[in-house]
Amino acid sequence: MLNITHDTQLAAVDLGSNSFRLEIGRVVDGQILRVDYLKEAVRQGGDLDEERNLKPQAFERGLKCLARFGERLKGFPAEHVRAVATQTLREATNSADFIKQAQKVLGYPIEIISGVEEARLIYQGVSRMLPQSDEKRLVVDIGGRSTEFILGQHFKANVTESLRLGSVGWSQKYFADGQFSERNFERAEIAAESIIDMIANRYVGQSEVAYGASGTVGAVADVLAGAGFATDRIERAQLDWLKQILVKAKSADRLNMEGLKDDRRAVIGGGLSVLIAVFDTLKIDTLKVANGALRHGVLYDMLSSDNAAEDLRTISITRLCKQFGVEMDHANNVSKVALYFYDAMQACDSHKPLLHWAALSHEIGWAISHTDCNKHGAYILDNTELMGFAQSELHAISLLVLGHQGKLRKLAADFDNQDLVCQLMALRLAVIFCHSRRLPTLKHLQLTRHKQQFVLTLSSQWASQHPQTYYLLEEESLLWQKLGWQFQVTTQ
Questions:
Q1: Exposure winner among 61, 142, 433, 474, fewest CB in 10 A?
Q2: Span 345-361, mean pLDDT?
Q3: C-alpha angle with apex 24: 166 to 19, nearest 5 degrees?
């Protein structure tokens, strides 16, 4: 749990597709008051090549911006800063290379979060900045390369979706010629509607008030306010009026409107077309402009205890397991045994939750096939989106699920990670000891580790009473030897 006192300062860094933002807030009586806010239009979302690699200029702009943020954050404790990256870095093939360099210049870890986690945090940010009520809310955030949709009440997000459409992507695809024509708008709106249609039945008629957050909604609201419309809401008819202004201007460089910032000029066409599609597909008449955004959700999430964050992730993993028909009694038994062996090795406590979640989900691949179920399960975890998780955490869990059975050679490249090896040993032993799908008695077992050697000591009586388990342990010993590790089973 964070050491939060009165006047503690927290910082959130949002690596968005169009802009990077830094929000610094001071904690006062459970609320967060702004201390500083920095925003730079980095536009990484517009600089992916045909293979979805970030172009060199996108690397350079992003790193220079984060270096400036890093200077502002100098002296902040690591636990008081959280940096999150969204859709562009979810998509980019070379995102790992960028993140590695970005963390050095920023001076803090950066998480690539999933779309549904982004949606959850957006809802947190919006709901915390609104007067509290019992209203059922729809929150929409149109970003540079993704749009998030959330249904929630109070501070809880109940339904979340993240779709791959946004102001930068749509501007590149449907306004690539730079022309604001009726034809381009028609194509862009129809394309956006076809995607939003896939989730519409979950959202239409399910809320009492609709809110728009950040990005495109904020940009459109600023332009409408500059034209004399209300500053706190957007009406459907106003979007048609704005579209006609753009069509009359014909191109972004000829567009001159009060309230339109330079960093939004090139993407206003794509953003407006997506916003129109959102209104029409979800049958929205009025969209209230929300003050909260992703970065505020990150700050308020940091106020929650570590246990609360862990519970959210456990809930997400459990829901996934049930979706794939996992036998949860057995999964929990495997978790208990795995954690028993992991504790015996006196390994890193901070990685115990990852081992727990891997144990719970190690059989999700059975829903596809018992053959190679570890590979199927790893694929599911690497390609799913779960609330509370960073992509790096899901990948770490997927590696454990991949390695919970079969040969170890497939993970040889990761064996320089000592903590992963300890987690893997604990999980594989747990699967062996629970192979009869009963919780075994562990008091007669002792596991020790010294460098690259594990020794499991059993009583001779136990070994004679469990011949099948003893045979599996002997086979396990041979597998570890092939990778230069020693797993020795002894009796006494």
A1: 474
A2: 90
A3: 25
